[in-house]
Write a structure and sequence with these properties.
The complex is a heterodimer of chains A (168) and B (157).
Chain A lengths: L1 H11 L2 H8 L3 H28 L8 H29 L1 H5 L2 H21 L6 H4 L7 H23 L9
Helix pairs in contact in A: 3-4, 3-8, 6-8
Chain B lengths: L1 H9 L1 H8 L1 H29 L9 H29 L1 H5 L2 H25 L8 H28 L1
Classes of the chains: A mainly alpha (168), B mainly alpha (157).
Chain lengths: 168, 157
């Protein structure tokens, strides 16, 4: 994708991008906040998925889990998304050439589609199974996909540190 | 302590993990997934304690639900953390951040399984909500410091 590559190459020349890249403080600070944001976001997504699967937090109705965790998931998402975008901005060519970065981006997109699909299908009948611990098939499927996809996102995110497959 | 750390580095586990970049990398990745589960299990209870999260539910119920996930993710963290320590033992020994993390971890574990546990499972009708609030905040602060210090071992040492 030449257009995408030129976008990354263009950002790479920004003085502010060069500044962040050359600073010894920004990278560790951004990465640390990124992990903390991940703990808040992914941690509470996982707690919601375990409830949806019927294996965790079962004494709390699903709608309560969903509604009460949502604001905190949002805080976590803002923390990790903002630091993630600044990290890309600071080293665009490093991420562009890293396969794990693209795997991670793709898995995040799938996780988003999965969440949306659940929201517009199975979630409509939440009143019927809200307090159950035996969950409907659609809910369990959404939970399994979400757990697997976010685990992949976290793992591929960590593996970006390794440039095993970088083109030379 | 140094002889023990040298022994860890020379052990089959230490050399095996060190010699395979794949095992080491995937171990780090799995450690982070376990961290996410652990963070979730800690936070559902801490948020309830500070009067947010599942505030309409009894605290002991929320804590009892989270308990198995807290324990099992902690075991997963230890199982994925120990190979990293063995393979990197000398570097860790000379890293201030590693020792800060271990002190913070010891404090967080002791706090979680003594004070936090007794407050989380206490009879809410008799317990003071302000006490739960303080305990929830201390728990968040302790575990936050463990995670931050852990990340800094790899970045700054």
């Amino acid at each position: 994708m030449p257009a995408l590559r030129s976008l990354f190459e263009w950002v790479d020349t920004f003085p502010s991008s060069v500044f962040l890249r050359e600073s010894v403080v920004w990278f560790p600070a951004l990465l640390t906040v990124h992990v903390i944001g991940m703990c808040l976001f992914a941690g509470l997504i996982i707690m919601m998925d375990l409830r949806l699967l019927g294996v965790g937090n079962t004494r709390t109705p699903f709608s309560v889990v969903q509604r009460r965790l949502f604001p905190w998931q949002l805080v976590g998402m803002v923390l990790s998304a903002s630091t993630g975008l600044i990290l890309i901005y600071s080293q665009p060519m490093r991420y562009y050439s890293n396969i794990f970065f693209w795997v991670k981006a793709f898995m995040m997109m799938l996780a988003g589609i999965n969440a949306m699909a659940f929201h517009y299908s199975t979630y409509h009948s939440v009143a019927r199974w809200d307090a159950d611990s035996k969950m409907p098939f659609g809910a369990k499927m959404a939970a399994v996909f979400s757990l697997a996809l976010w685990a992949f996102v976290i793992m591929s995110g960590r593996l970006i540190a390794y440039n095993w497959f970088n083109p030379v | 302590m140094l002889p023990f750390f040298t022994w860890m580095g020379d052990s089959a586990l230490g050399t095996g993990v060190r010699d395979s970049i794949w095992i080491y990398a995937f171990d780090q990745a799995a450690h982070l997934v376990a961290l996410a589960v652990f963070a979730g299990a800690v936070l559902v209870v801490d948020l309830r304690m500070i009067g947010s999260g599942f505030k309409s539910r009894p605290m002991a119920q929320v804590a009892r639900d989270a308990q198995p996930w807290l324990i099992w993710s902690l075991i997963a963290l230890a199982l994925t953390g120990i190979p990293q320590l063995f393979s990197n033992s000398i570097k860790e020994y000379y890293s201030d951040w590693f020792w800060y993390k271990m002190y913070a971890l010891a404090a967080a574990l002791i706090f979680t399984f003594t004070i936090r546990r007794s407050v989380a499972f206490a009879d809410e009708a008799r317990a003071k909500p302000s006490l739960a609030k303080v305990v929830g905040l201390v728990s968040i602060a302790l575990w936050l410091s463990v995670a931050v210090l852990a990340r800094l071992i790899g970045l700054l040492s």
